[in-house]
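Hi P.,

Sorry for the delay on this. The queue was packed all week, but I finally got your sequence through. Input first:
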Amino acid sequence: MTATKQPESVSSVLKTFGILQALSEQKDIGISELAQRLMMSKSTVYRFLQTMKTLGFVSQDGDSENYSLTLKLFEVGANALEYVDLVELADFEMRRIGDATSEALHLGALDEDAIIYIHKIDSKYNLRMQSRIGRRNPLYSTAIGKVLLAERPEEEVRQILAPVEFVKSTTRTHETIDSLIEELNTVRETGVGEDNEEQEEGLRCIAVPVLDRFNNVVAGMSVSLPVIRFSEEKRADYIDQLHQAAARISGKLGCKQYPYGKVE
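Then the structure:
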């Protein structure tokens, strides 16, 4: 497809990234020079720059009226890099637990008012969870969701969940924020979140937090298994394995002292 025959949406994307590329190669630049360099009309460049200013990606000097990039792109890139690094670090630990338990492992992060799975190790059993990377699940009925919420003040938890409808997936699912917050107090103390057939009948999940260099919870890591393979002995062993693994991952993310479990 030639440039002249591209759909308007594709053309706009190309122009946007062309402007960003040009701005990245020079500290600041005037609109006339930018238009000439990109072989675009000044009016078109101006329109794009105004939108990018509104979104916070571009700033304009009050004296020279030249344009330059803000740190917004760096912020976006840094956030993406953080998750790439996290997945890479977690993969080894999750595979080790997967090899020891043969159960499914998940890594999830907060995405507005839900969790999103960013990594997964499948169970070695024929009976497996129907889950996938990129899938969203509720915070209130998942083990990972609970460890992501537990570190937050009650007021913030209520704010996050205010627009959320508590859907009873099973008879055990929380129906109100108040009942969930009561459980979060225990999760905060123990560093363990549990889904006791709350999201799916016949399924148990156990999760622990992963911390960054500021001791903030950046993700939750869980092991999931059907109730037919669950026992209290396994529960204690899996919690210990998860805490040990999360401590090692957190340490590599800069956390100086993981606060849960008996860290070796």
